[in-house]
Amino acid sequence: MRKSSKKNSLSIQNGIFFTFAVLVLVAVVAVSALLLMVLRAVIINEIGKARGDVLSQINMRIQITRGNMISFSNLIYNDSAVKTVMEQAAQAPARKEQVVSTCEHYIQAYKEFGTEMYVVLYNGADFAYCSKEDFYYQFDRISKNLWYSDVVNGHGETVWISSYDDTYLLAQEHFVFSAARIYERQDQTKGILLITVPERSLYAAYEAVLTDDSQIFVLNADGKVVSHSDPNLVGLNYYDMNYFYEMMGDKNYVVAHKSEEAYLLSYSRDEDTGWVVVEEIRLGALLDPLWNSIYWCVGIVAVIIFAGLLMAFLLAKVIVRPINALCQYIRNVREDNLAELEEIGGWRETQNLNQVFNAMIRDINQMLEKVRENERRRRTAELDFLQQQINPHFIYNTLFSIQCVVDMGKRTEAVAMIALFIKLMKMSVNSSNELVYLQEELEWNRSFVDLLRLKYTNAISLDIWYESEDLKRCHIPKMLLQPIVENSVYHGLDRKEDIHIQVTVKRSGDDVTVSLKDNGGGIAKEKLIELNKGIWRKAKLNHVGLPNVRERIKLAFGEQYDMYIASELGKGTEVTLTIPYIY
């Protein structure tokens, strides 16, 4: 009996030794790898912060240059002699010397502060002046530039012009950026003031921090390169800024890959102007000191592993009751989610471990169920919050349409569109409730259709019919119908005839049906079946808005309420919503 007990004891002891030895090996390797990753992350984090500080200093220098340009522009623009020449062409010959003297005085003053700028004044008639004397300035080119209309529309306010070619004669000043302001005379002739700084002046702000493994970009808010060590890149649209900020997240640096090589990408942004200073540094060059220390780490890890194995061997001889300690440990750390352990035989200690482990698993499952319930509640709260947001697709399309109308010079249409847009936004935010009166929702969509009518040449109409007056005060989720109306107009644009949308509101018992029928091109039968089954694909149909309509209906009122689409090619589409009658 003693022999059998001794044999069993030795088996457990050996198991403890091998288990502990493996754990030591795994733990040391895992901790070493983790420390290496942590050290790498810490180094990148510290370098990223440091580079962000450096870029902030560079950005500050650039802001100083821009500030000097603005103050210089204000001095010249508001000077009485300059105003007389620029706004009264008849006074130009007599005042020319005074204007030149004034400009040269200010230029010299700012030059002493370390900012070299030159002035261009052109009244569009009999006065033209450029403070640069070493090249012939082509004043007649000014009004032919793409940015000229932006300056005119500024009506005397400062307009920044970045990265444009001002002369072909000086290679070092091939690209410049300017602060421009317009003068308006009674005869409507436009005079212009340009305060210009060569792009190389910006380059001087960061030249000292460049290395063979790094490059720095100065970008405007649209991602256009204002300055770079390589003049050939100046003026190019280098970054998609929306993607850039999405990639950066909430940090001012990120590790990115380009041409199968990792780079540390950091930036500093001027909130007032939107200008961004971006630095790319090859990550390998930054981490070379880390890899040089790995050889020492390997030796230290080998020593730790040897010491751990020796400790495992010694501890395996003296540890007699490890399982009870392990059971106590499990009682203290009941936080994992595992299946219950099957009944195991053997020593009493292992049976105790089995029971404690199963009790722990049951407790964990109960806790996880509570966590899942809390997650469902959180998900519902998030959906409730999202329901209260204005549709970004609608805002983007509207603002883009207004921009296009403004670019085409249609001021009257642009003003009308902005007025309607303000009205729509006001109607959207006036109520803090998710549910609004059906009449308010349909009137909002009527205004939305008025806005679309200004955007497109097609005649667009929205007719509303209520089965009874009390249906007007039925409640409906805010902006629920907008994606449907937008789809009807969008698909109707492919047809030559006018677009007509008929909205019909009826009551059926305790439910209300809202049908929106258009005279668009319709939907193919196969596609229609997919849509009514909830299969949404990226195609011409609004694959985001319509699923959200269905989801919001079910979330607000329950699974028994839904949306149904009926359509026939060439004859139009009818979308029917079923909601409860909430008065």
Could you walk me through the main structural features you see in this protein, from its secondary elements to its overall organization?
- The protein is flat and about 110 Å long.
- Helix content is 51%, strand content 19%.
- It is an alpha+beta fold.
- It has three domains: 1-320, no CATH class; 326-387; 393-580, Heat Shock Protein 90 (2-Layer Sandwich).
- The strands form four sheets. Strands 2-1-5-4-3 form a five-stranded antiparallel beta sheet.
- The model is unreliable at 1-11, 385-390 and 539-543 (pLDDT under 50).
- A hairpin with a 6-residue loop joins strand 9 and strand 10.
- The longest helix has 76 residues, at 2-77.
- Helix 1 runs antiparallel to helix 8 (294-318), helix 9 packs parallel to helix 10 and helix 13 packs parallel to helix 14.
Summarize, please.
With 583 residues, the chain is α+β, with helices and mostly antiparallel strands.
Counted up, domains total 3
Discrete helix count: 16
- The SS-based structural class is alpha+beta
Uncertain residue segments? 1-11, 385-390, 539-543
Largest sheet: 5 strands, antiparallel
Mean pLDDT comes to 78
Distance between the termini: 85 Å
Strand order of the largest sheet: 2-1-5-4-3
Shape by Cα distribution: flat
What secondary-structure arrangement, pairings included, does this model have?
Elements: H1 2-77, H2 80-87, H3 92-112, E1 118-122, E2 128-130, H4 148-153, E3 159-165, E4 175-184, E5 190-198, H5 199-206, E6 214-219, E7 225-228, H6 241-248, E8 253-258, E9 261-269, E10 276-282, H7 283-292, H8 294-318, H9 322-332, H10 348-387, H11 392-407, H12 411-429, E11 435-437, H13 438-455, E12 460-466, E13 475-477, H14 482-492, E14 499-508, E15 511-518, H15 525-532, H16 545-557, E16 563-568, E17 572-580
Parallel strand pairs: 12-14
Antiparallel strand pairs: 1-2, 1-5, 3-4, 4-5, 6-7, 6-10, 8-9, 9-10, 11-13, 14-15, 15-17, 16-17
Helix pairs in contact: 1-3, 1-8, 2-3, 9-10, 11-12, 12-13, 13-14
